[in-house]
Design brief:
66% of the residues lie in helices and 12% in strands. It is mainly alpha-helical. It has a two-stranded antiparallel sheet with strand order 1-2.
Length: 104
């Protein structure tokens, strides 16, 4: 079963992993050092993020480094952006009403 990107980011640990590797590529052990959990648990989260193509792996010597697939994050941004536009329109309308009340 193919997971979708929103299932992947629904978990707080996976969101924290994304935040970590957005700054720099990291090994699973380095990522696990930031959590109060096992490396095996972190590896499971990384597998899900990899299946959703949110992270990519790069072999460097004996280590595997995980980094963020920025292009895939754009899918989330595009989905959220539709609501951002809706709220900005409503706030602008509210500003207009308040300005009218203030001057009237």
């Amino acid at each position: 079963m193919r997971r979708d990107i929103f299932q992947a980011i629904a978990d707080p640990t996976r969101r924290a992993i994304i935040t970590l590797i957005a700054v720099q590529a990291m090994t699973p052990s380095a990522i696990a050092d930031n959590f109060n959990t096992t490396r095996q648990s972190v590896s499971k989260h990384l597998r899900i993020l990899t299946e959703c193509e949110l992270v990519k792996q790069e072999q460097q010597g004996r280590e595997i480094y995980y980094s963020l697939e920025v292009e895939k994050i754009k899918e989330v941004d595009q989905w959220v952006n539709q609501f951002r536009n809706m709220w900005e329109t409503r706030f602008n309308q509210l500003d207009d009403v308040l300005s009218t009340l203030k001057t009237g």
